[in-house]
């Protein structure tokens, strides 16, 4: 079966066709994955402007879906179901995808599958590499999320911890902004960090030891926190006045070392605690070169298989939503036509 995936949760309008392979070890193959990025529109404002995002999704959605079918050499009659991101994300953006998917499913007489955006990021690992040995611990790290999930059974995601304040990608974007490096911050800090000294300046490390009063069911010591680090960078920059190019690179390198260390430490702590047979990192920040390298190194040292998406599957895309949709559809879950977008949809 082929499934059409649709993703509009933030600032990328994306549609993809993903096909089942019949191979249980590597269950899905990408037929097409079209992404219309709005980055040039939002760059001007230094971040995503929800109203502009929503309007641009409306302009792009029809063409993006048509293109995804064309690239896959498919028509509506070749598609067996439609999967769409229900949430979390920007509600005005999500609504465009959900409304389009419902209308298309009704018109073509196809089943509709509602997908959680983070389930999509987690399944991007399986789409890229094949099934992960379970139990697996997966870090989902993007502009909106930094969360650890335990996957004991395929398609079931148990939340272990998350950030208490900023997401890691958000911290990259804010630090880039205060260094005057533009939006999005992740790729440019990643590039500059390679030329800097990652021990040049003193910035605080973050380790939470106390439980979160807002989520007493979670132990809390695997939680993340990045806003203190961001504030420390701000103080450093203010105290120095203007920074030379090499000083900016040093700030980027030190910031990146601390973020990556905190992500990798918690991920492998969780893997040990839950006797994981594999670990993975997904989401926009998984494109980070240092994070990718440290994941592989640590995995080799701990003799545990590590999983990453390709760079194209790291950031938001509809192929991962189609993959998670196939998983859900095969488990017997479809959505009714009164499906609504949910900006704060929980997972696990
Ligand atoms: O998954 P994604 O496309 O959208 C969300 O769901 O948030 O992630 C976008 C985030 C942005 O914050 C961006 O700065 C970050 O991923 N990012 C990176 C890199 N490439 C993108 N962060 C660090 N290093 C990178 N190379
Ligand atoms: Zn995302």
Question: How would you summarize the topology of this molecule?
Answer:
Blueprint: E1 2-7, E2 12-20, E3 28-37, H1 39-43, H2 50-71, E4 79-87, H3 91-108, E5 112-116, H4 117-129, E6 136-141, E7 146-151, E8 158-162, H5 168-178, H6 185-193, H7 227-240, H8 245-273, E9 278-282, H9 289-302, E10 306-307, H10 311-314, H11 318-330
Parallel strand pairs: 1-4, 4-5, 6-9, 9-10
Antiparallel strand pairs: 1-2, 2-3, 6-7, 7-8
The protein binds 5'-O-[(R)-(carboxyoxy)(hydroxy)phosphoryl]adenosine and zinc ion (ZN).
Describe this structure in words.
- Helix 3 (91-108) links the parallel strand 4 and strand 5.
- The model has no long low-confidence stretch (mean pLDDT 96).
- 50% of the residues are buried.
- The chain is globular, with a radius of gyration of 20 Å.
- Helices cover 44% and strands 18% of the residues.
- It has 11 helices and 10 strands.
- It has 348 residues and is an alpha/beta fold.
- The longest helix is centred in the C-terminal third of the chain and has 29 residues, at 245-273.
- A 5-stranded mixed β-sheet has the order 3-2-1-4-5, sandwiched between helices. Strands 8-7-6-9-10 form a 5-stranded mixed β-sheet, with helices on both faces.
- It binds 5'-O-[(R)-(carboxyoxy)(hydroxy)phosphoryl]adenosine and zinc ion.
């Amino acid at each position: 079966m082929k499934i059409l995936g649709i993703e509009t949760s933030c600032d990328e309008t994306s549609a993809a066709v993903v096909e089942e392979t019949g191979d249980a070890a590597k269950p899905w193959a990408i037929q097409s994955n079209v992404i219309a990025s709005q980055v040039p529109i939002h760059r001007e404002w230094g971040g995503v402007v929800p109203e502009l995002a929503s309007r641009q999704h409306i302009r792009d959605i029809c063409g993006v879906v048509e293109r995804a079918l064309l690239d896959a050499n498919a028509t509506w009659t070749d598609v067996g179901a439609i999967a769409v991101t229900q949430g979390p994300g920007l509600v005005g953006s999500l609504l465009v995808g959900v409304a389009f998917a419902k209308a298309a499913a009704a018109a073509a007489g196809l089943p509709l599958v509602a997908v959680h955006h983070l389930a999509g990021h987690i399944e991007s690992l399986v789409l890229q590499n094949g099934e992960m040995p379970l139990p697996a611990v997966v870090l989902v790290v993007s502009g909106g999320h930094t969360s650890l999930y335990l996957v004991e059974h395929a398609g079931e995601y148990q939340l272990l911890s998350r950030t208490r304040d900023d997401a890691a990608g958000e911290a990259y974007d804010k630090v880039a902004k205060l260094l005057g490096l533009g939006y999005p911050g992740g790729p440019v800090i990643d590039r500059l960090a390679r030329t800097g000294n990652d021990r040049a300046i003193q910035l605080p490390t973050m380790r939470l030891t106390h439980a979160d009063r807002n989520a007493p069911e979670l132990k809390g010591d695997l939680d993340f926190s990045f806003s203190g680090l961001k504030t420390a960078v701000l103080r450093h920059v203010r105290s120095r006045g203007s920074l030379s190019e090499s000083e900016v690179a040093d700030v980027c390198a030190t910031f990146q070392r601390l973020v990556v260390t905190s992500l990798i430490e918690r991920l492998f702590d969780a893997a040990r605690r839950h006797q994981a047979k594999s670990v993975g990192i997904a989401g926009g920040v998984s494109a980070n070169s240092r994070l990718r390298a440290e994941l592989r190194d640590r995995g080799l040292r701990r003799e545990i298989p590590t999983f990453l998406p390709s760079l194209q599957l790291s950031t938001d895309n509809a192929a991962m939503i189609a993959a998670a949709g196939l998983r859900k559809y095969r488990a017997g879950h479809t959505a009714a036509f009164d499906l609504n977008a949910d900006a704060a949809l929980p997972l696990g």
